[in-house]
Amino acid sequence: AGQMEKHGFQTEVKQLLHLMIHSLYSNKEIFLRELVSNASDAADKLRFKALSDNSLYGDDSDLHVRVSVDKDSRTITISDNGVGMTRDDVMNNLGTIAKSGTAEFFGQLSGDEAKDSKLIGQFGVGFYSAFIVADEVTVRTRSALDKDARGVEWRSQGEGDFEIADIDKARRGTDIILHLKDDADEFLDENRLRGIINKYSEHLSIPVQMWKEPVPESEDDEGNKVEGQPGEWETVNSGQALWTREKSDITDDEYKEFYKTVAHDFDEPLLWSHNKVEGTTEYTNLLYIPKRAPWDLWNREQQHGVKLYVKRVFIMDDAEQLMPTYLRFVRGLVDSNDLPLNVSREILQDNKITRAMRNGSTKKVLQMLKKLAKDDKEQYQQFWDTFGNVLKEGPAEDHTNRERIAELLRFASTHNDGAVQSVSLDDYIERMKEGQDKIFYIVADSYEAARNNPALEIFNKKGIEVLLLSERIDEWLMSHLTEFKEKQLQSVTRGDLDLGELDDEEDKAEQEKAEEAFKENLERFEKALGDKVKKVRVTNRLTNSPACIITDDNDMSTQMAKLMEAAGQ
Ligand code: ADP
Ligand code: MG
Question: Which residues bind ATP (predicted)?
């Protein structure tokens, strides 16, 4: 072996290790899911590379993951003949955290273990989860891509540092050797390991194997010879990708377990939709809505959660072309029958097949949400409270589905007490007054500010419902949502508010009289306020307040102006 070097972990790795070991002690078994899934990813990556260079396989094209136990030395080894790692890869992958948004994640940690352990589940624990059960981890690896590369050994006790050295390794790929802690005995039991593999890795298309001991030749009760069996590597998972199976043969539990692996979530999904699409474009998708928001939901640059497969071969994570940004909370995969296996991100970007799959998948998600809203109000409310503000980006981004998205929106309203957003536009329309042809709303800084805005006085007096909007995104939303089911959406703080038939003759006469009476005062106000206002006018809209500020129909609303100002415009 070559010179051994010692390196310190990046600070975040130390924090992560500490947090993980303390918060996941009741969920130890997930280390195997993570390590087997990494091994399977490595095999997938090699299979993908080998599509364009078959020689990468050498004389070993039978990709697999093997899990073995050595009770005497108290070790578990997870071994793959996948893509492997170069020395640089090892340094980058197993000493730092390369995930995007890592800083944000650490910024969110509170020091409260219960809270933080939830976060970590969403962050995804990955390779470092080995240290939940091991007091020493050794990684021996050799890259399949760099033919001149030597092997590399990485070793750590999961405290502050790791050691790295060049080694000779005959087989390409990676062996991960875990030396178990005293309290992790249960994982020396092969049946326990088989159980965990069945639970989490059943669907992996790479065979996960365990060694079956040979059975010696023997004799039965009557003295007949019974043939022995040689030892062999036995495949533990069925190896059939879950989404390729018939829907009717898949149990809810299988869907849920699969979700946990694709989404790196500890929780069950809220709902899912599994579709085989045939016709001009052929593909299968399996799309999940999580229960909880991922920790980086608000980062619009965050990786998307939909993986791309082509004919069951894994192609890439986070295929952003497959799902619009306003549905970035969706997790799952799309498996295309039509794309070429050597598809790149560039090809995906402007591609008829991608577009068809994206449109189809988007509709499926919107349909599944619509159905949830109809079937289970409570769960839909949970969804809305978690992801509603992301969905509100929809009308601006996706014109084709504007109406479908609008149906899914929920608002606070003068019809309800409290700030909970539970009123749909359809609910509103159903309650509209006779002669009312518009949907009225107000946008303000907070629910309280909206609720108490003087502009609502006339509406309260006439018993007309007004939607109360107070999220940052709402102004943006409403500037792209001007109509729903042929009804105009009208802000109550804008312009010369026309209540149409809702204004009776008496109101109009009174208004005219007042305008006459106050004419001189108005001119004096305008003169005194100068450039600060465009116009001062008399209104019959107010019943309790002396005055209020409104904007012209074509001008920026006061909310939008504040937003622009905040953005430094
Ligand atoms: P993730 O799998 O989400 O990328 P992990 O912490 O599980 O994060 O793994 C970190 C990285 O280490 C992987 O992205 C991969 O590049 C590398 N890696 C881990 N295990 C293996 C393996 N068995 N073979 C090759 N590379 C691996
Ligand atoms: Mg991983």
Answer: 34, 38, 80, 85, 93, 99-101, 122-127, 174, 345
Question: Which token pair is 159?
Answer: 């405290």
The bridge status of strand 225-226 relative to strand 134-142 is unpaired
CB of 43 sitting under 6 A from ligand 1? no
Phi, psi of 363 (to 5 degrees): -60, -40
Q: Is the CB of 412 under 6 A from ligand 1?
A: no
The end-to-end CA distance of the chain, in Å, is 61
Q: Which of 344, 346, 355 is nearest to 322 (CA)?
A: 355
As a whole number of angstroms, the distance between CA 347 and CA 505 comes to 64
Q: Please tell me the distance from the alpha carbon of residue 386 to that of residue 297, in angstroms, as a whole number.
A: 10
Phi and psi dihedrals of 287, rounded to 5?
A: -120, 135
Please give the Cα distance from 398 to 384 (Å, whole number). Answer: 19
Q: How far is the CA of 59 from the centre of ligand 1 (A)?
A: 24
The predicted-structure confidence for 129-143, as pLDDT tens digits, reads as follows 999 999 999 999 999
Contact 538, 519 (CB under 8 A): no
Please, what sign has the CA dihedral across residues 528, 529, 531, 537? negative
Ligand 1 contact via 239 beta carbon (within 6 Å): no
Whether the per-residue pLDDT at 192 is higher than 90: the answer is: yes
Spell out the SS3 assignment of 290-316: CCCCCCCCCCCCCCCEEEEEECCEEEE
The residue nearest atom 20 of ligand 1, judged by CA position, is 38
109 and 19 Cβ atoms separated by less than 8 Å:
yes
Q: Which of 338, 318, 337 is nearest to 328 (CA)?
A: 318
Mean pLDDT for 194-215 is 86
327: which strand partners? none
What residue has token string 């039965």? 220
Residue 192 falls in which region: left (phi positive, over 0), alpha (psi -120 to 50) or beta = alpha
Residues at the annotated binding site?
A: 34, 38, 80, 85, 93, 99-101, 122-127, 174, 345
Q: HSE on the CB side for 226, CA within 13 Å?
A: 9
42 lines ligand 1 (CB under 6 A): yes
% of the chain with per-residue pLDDT over 90: 54
Residue 220's CB: how many other CB atoms inside 10 A? 8
By CB neighbour count within 10 A (0-12 exposed, 13-18 middle, 19+ buried), where does 148 fall? exposed
Ligand 1 contact, 175 CB (< 6 A): no
Altogether, the residues listed in the chain come to a count of 569
The closest of 284, 296, 290, 295 to 322, measured between CA atoms, is: 284
Separation CA 398–CA 406 (nearest Å): 11
Dist. CA 567–CA 569, nearest whole Å? 6
**264 touches 237 (CB < 8 A):** no
pLDDT digits (tens, 9 = 90+) for 478-499: 999 999 999 999 999 876 666 7
User: Is 338:353 a contact under the CB 8 Å cutoff?
Assistant: yes
Ligand 1 nearest atom to the CA of residue 173, by list position = 24
Residue 558 φ/ψ, nearest 5 degrees: -60, -35
User: Which ligand approaches the C-alpha of residue 94 most closely?
Assistant: 1
Residue 12, both tokens: 């975040």
